[in-house]
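User: Predict Protein trichome birefringence-like 19's structure from this.
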Amino acid sequence: MQSLVCLLASAAIPVDVSETKDTRFRRWLFKDYNFTIIALWSPQLIKSYESDPNGYSYNSLMDLYLDKADDVWASQVDKADIVIISGGQWFFRPFLYYQNGQLIGCHKCNEKNTTKLSHYYGYRMAFRTAFKTLLSLEKLKSRLVILRPFSPQHFENGQWNKGGNCNRTKPFTNQDIKLDGYTLQMYLTQLQEFKAAQKQGNKRGVKFRLLDTTEAMLLRPDGHPNHYGHWPNEKKLADCVHWCMPGPVDTWNELLLSILKMEAE
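Assistant:
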């Protein structure tokens, strides 16, 4: 999103018309083109609440309501002509899963008499609910929904919170690494729900398109901030999840442009 705003700013200067000071929710108006970009922060896509009264931590429980879309985006998305949806790295923490208002299971929890479910289950249901919500919006008919699938991380020499880093300065080749393990499973989970939604969208006049960046980004371990995303005197974990700008992330928007050109033909 930040890359997109920067790239478009080379053609026209955007005006910040955000309705809040919270930088997770931004709006940029390109007056010359009567075009607005809206960024809506909803990492789980569905309703979620911190279970721990002490607030958020990496290992604290969160309540996920699998059948209810997050109003943060669901209440505003019908205003959009093009919707780009993504999510992934926020689904690994402990969760309590709720459906129809009832606890049905959990991931990485110690709750007694509670069905243990994988994070893939919550991930699948989050996208199923998000796509179902988009399909139900009458005003979204004849518009475009784009899925940008799972973005790989590249921690080496340890886990993300145990000394892992991403020091590589060159891309991988196809012989160096393959799409497998949990990255492949996250990608396939999204893809299965996307294809099901696309089939329904064909019946309802809603176009679903795939901005498929996962395998290409798997080859770019050199594109992360690593330890350089903060001041030298700060002791912070390496960031091998987010992407530097300019960098590989700009390619996503080149691919987005290609999709929009094809849809305009």
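The chain has six helices and ten strands.
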